[in-house]
Structure formats: C-alpha cells, structure tokens
Amino acid sequence: MTDKYIFEWHDRVRDYECDIQGIVNNSNYMHYMEHARHMFLLSRGVSFSGLHEKGCDVVVARVEVQYKCSLRPNDEYITKLYVTKEGPRYIFHHAIFRKSDMKLCIRAHYVLAALVNGKLATSYPELDELLQ
Questions:
Q1: What predicted TM-score, i.e. pTM, was given to this entire model?
Q2: Domains of the chain
C-alpha cells in the first residue's frame, strides 16, 4: 500500500455485478473506479458535467489494470486513488481493497487527457488543483 492516496470511496458489491463464477465481472471494476473518480471530483468541488459545460472534456486515453483478488456478492470494498501529471496527461492511480481484510483486489492506472473545445490541453486549472 501507499500513503499517497488522497481519496477513498466505500461501496458494496451487488449480486448482478457478478458472473456465473460468483465473482465480480472484470468490467464492473471499471465502473467502480469511474464512480470513485467522479466522487473524488465532486469532493473537490469539480463537477464532471460542469467541466463539459465549460468546454473541457476529460477522456480516457489508456487503462492498465492488474487483477489480484476477486470480489464476491455483498463484499464491501474501498476504492482509493491519487493523481499525478505527466505532460498533458492526468494519471489516476487506483486501488480497490476488500474491506474485511484489506486485501488488494485491483491496481489500475487511468491515463486521462483534457480536451478544451476539442483540442488537447496541456493543463486545465480545475484539474491542476487536484494535484495539490
């Protein structure tokens, strides 16, 4: 684990998110992390839809996910994240832990780009504030 995490979101696995094997379907982890990113933005006074209304669209350019341990129905989990910047890209570093034993389930890196009025921006004030 790292002490760099600046935000965490708690939630619980719903039955319909699991596959026939009784574990969370891999694609649902993407939803968990996206929701955590949006909650993080809101916690900092930044609305994802508000950014769009101002002409700034934050888009996913690349995702790298390491699946470590599966979550199961009704497992409580904690999604943690921190943000770094490399050039014009914002990198959201995610980890999902099973709450009962804090076992690492997922580690992921989301590389996002900010498009302002359709053009790649090297920075955007509201997003740069997330790095502080």
A1: 0.92
A2: 7-131 (3.10.129.10)
